[in-house]
Amino acid sequence: MVFDRTENEPEEWDPEEELYDPDSDGLTIPQVTTEDDPDEATSGIDVPSVSTDETDVPSDVLQAFWALVLVINAALFVVSLGALLLVFEGDVTRGGTLVGSGIVLFGLAGRRYRTFRADSDDEPADSNPGDEDRSADDATETTSGDGTQA
User: Fold this and answer.
1) What are the Cα distances from residue 12, in Å, to 7, 17, 29, 52?
2) What global pTM score does this model have?
3) Residue 140's pLDDT is what?
């Protein structure tokens, strides 16, 4: 056999030899003793808590964002599937329908985004604290587009 030991080969140290238990068919794991009480060690750990009650964005922005994410993902999937059908199968009917549907979904997402932006721009100035700074910058804008004051 290939794995037989020759008489010139030295004995190898087996790290598991001292852990072998002849009464059972496996290794015994030695018990580790600690100086501290195990209950004291776990009580000293502070578990962090995270509040999930609040979000950093208003609910209408969050709702519009996730609606746009879903519509754009669906549009991307439908256009990709339609393109694959057109290129690899040559199925103009189903592939063309899917590509057209995906383009309509992209248009719907763009329209929804523009509508949301227009609605958020129509809000009163009291709701956006940065509008006072922007109005001061607008007053100092140039009348000509070359960057010089008129």
Assistant:
1) 13, 11, 22, 58
2) 0.48
3) 47
